[in-house]
Amino acid sequence: MMGEVVVGLDVHLKNTQVTVMKMNGEIVKKERIRTCKAELRKSLESVPKGTKVALESVGFCWPWIDFLAELRLEPLLANPLKVKLRAEDVKNDKVDSKTLAELTRMNWLPTCYVPPAELRWLRSMLRIVLSGRGLAQESRTGPNPSLGSAISTWRLTLARRKEGKQLLEWMFLRFLRTSSFLS
Question: Per-residue pLDDT for 136 more than 90?
Fold first, then answer.
């Protein structure tokens, strides 16, 4: 069992760099793992509950935020542009995870807002609907990748752009039904 520590995670699609740091700056653990729940759980098993775990805000961070919360850790979402301004000149995964841990330890981590889980899907869908790129509309470069991600995430099937308004209305009504506004 460790004393009080902080964790920095540099999460990528295939691999994640983990840095566990004591409050005095001593690095307890530094390892590269596959980006999957089993390996992250194993890597963080000795970290005390309630430990602050910093990761940068990337397009696929929400499942990891939720997973860290399931492990009863305190996930902190960092603003990647502001972290870069405070980081070392050398930029690689090891340095990034160490920087996230270091900034968390010193309480200098530039954090982002983490919306409640019930709002995240709405924000994702609104971003796509309002992006002007169209719903399931193919451009010269091919299908909209963010749309494909959202469709697979939310298991929606959309065919044409004109359905966007109906989708927006449906999302808004779903949000109202599931939020505290109607409670």
Answer: no
